[in-house]
Amino acid sequence: HGEGGHVVVVTIQYRLGVLGFLVHPGLESESSNGKSGNYAVMDQLFALQWIRDNIAGFGGDASNVTVFGESAGGVNTGNLLTSPLAAGLFHKAIIQSAVPVITTYQDAKAQGIDFVNEFVMNGTDAEKISYMRSVHPDSFSVRMNSPLSGGIVQSAWKPAVDGNIFTSHPEAVFQSGNFNQVPLMIGSNSEEMSLSAPVTVLPYMVDALINLSVPLSLRAEAHALYPSGSTSEEARMSYVGILTDGQFTTTNRRTAQCVSLNQTEPVWRYFFTHKHTIPQLAMYGSYHGMELFYVFNNWENATLGQGLLFKPADDAVQQAMLRYWTNFARTGNPNGTGLENWPQYLSSDDCYLEIKAEPDGNQCGLRTSKSDFWDKVIGYTRCTSSVGLESQPDKKELTFFPNPTSGKIYLDLPQDLHDYEIFIYNSFGQKQQSFKNTDQIDLSGEACGIYFIEISSEGKRYTGRIVKTD
Prior knowledge:
This protein is α/β, with parallel strands linked by helices. It has two domains: 3-378, Alpha/Beta hydrolase fold, catalytic domain (Rossmann fold), CATH 3.40.50; 395-468, Immunoglobulins (Immunoglobulin-like, Sandwich). The chain is 33% helix and 16% strand. The strands form three sheets. Strands 1-2-3-4-5-6 form a six-stranded mixed β-sheet, sandwiched between helices.
């Protein structure tokens, strides 16, 4: 029991690495649906089913379950939002320092075949899997590296789109509106990669990191946002900033925006900026995983947080986080009496709660220029709304027919709309077509699926969703 917040907390175990995600033909033949992998997700689904069936015996409410996790746990939480098999098993979600990540089945299968062939080259696929079951699991784990090595987030083994547990990639599922729509809290920390980055960073190392991660045409902008500096301290600040914003701040915004645009349930974004009060740790800022000490109120039990090392600022943060998190778990809204107001997230204003000794809920636009920059680096196109329910004064619903369509679409445009552009995006946010000043478009040459239409004219935006059929 989380007695301080009057909630029941359940922690679960699930298979990791190759044991959790191996896709291989020898395993496919054993499966009723001809697919393999995603065993870790099966474990998570089984745990949620167990909670549904048994939590009442522990004083819990099976109709009010919140799934939450940090880092890999946050990835799992985000992925469960997109799984049809998780529908109804949870009612709220908290993603801390993560976003959903799912790979293609083909890539996972190729990886699995190569991995098994490192152990056994001869025999049928079934015989190879039989041999793998005789290998000690330690022989698998010793081949794995830290997922945060050098500050570069990398996960060797991932869930895969198998057509059963996962039907598509997360953003496509969010854009379609066909996901587990629940109140969502999502956020990250201000110096996520400070513990994983090199202790000493020199200016040339910032240059090298920019050259590695940014295309030539955008490097000048990268240097303006993240100066190489003239000292090791200045260089390290930019180095950590690149790793943090490129991998956490920006990706968090993408998920918050996409979910908020495509569901009626509220989204709440946070940014954790509290620093440890002892000098030895303060230099690392708000590092990856640090907020967990405060969510669970156990920094005061840590070696470097005990006794006189535990300051009033630490206590203020842990008390606030406990109340925000448990309020959200109970009601879907983190706010409560005596707490700084946490604004609901909208993609149009990007407002959030800054979590520190005195939380600040009056800020909007979290590292906007830097997040916009990282979107440009990968050519990211923001989600559009499939439901049109988020309140945005400059964004209006578009009517068109027929929908679904096998080809031509006719637009019902406002009479005062004269000079405008039309953009068609697929479910991955990739631009497929563009038009100017027409009330008809033709999707005959496009594959069947869901497409998003956006019309832009003099600061006004009209959006809608099209279903393309044969």
